[in-house]
Amino acid sequence: MKLDWSPADWELDFSFIRASGPGGQNVNKVSSAVHLRFDIRRSTLPPLIKERLLALSDQRITNEGVIVIKAQESRSQEQNRADAVARLVELVQAVAHTPKARRATKPTYGSKQRRLEGKSLRSGIKAGRAKPTTD
Description:
alpha+beta, Double Stranded RNA Binding Domain, 3-stranded antiparallel beta sheet
């Protein structure tokens, strides 16, 4: 199932924090990292997608059904914000994709014959390596 979805502004809750890691004065002074919070139950997603998201065992999903994504790659607050939204959309797209059902098939008669022929050829090669018996 292909889902063309992008979250509405009211569904996203952004909070800006200081990024961790190296970066010197920029990291210490500027709140460029973004926490994106997305409540699955209140969203406009189809019920099937909501169920699949809530069933995921992903550490970004809280027990209350809220997805929390932290983006801090860039020094720009806007880039981090866009990155967080892109990762949210990617997560929803991954859940929306249903894998094609596998149908069990039987090997053909010819493929069985080729396999057995190969096995007997191999056993003949290995039998030829054995020490000759003295009768």
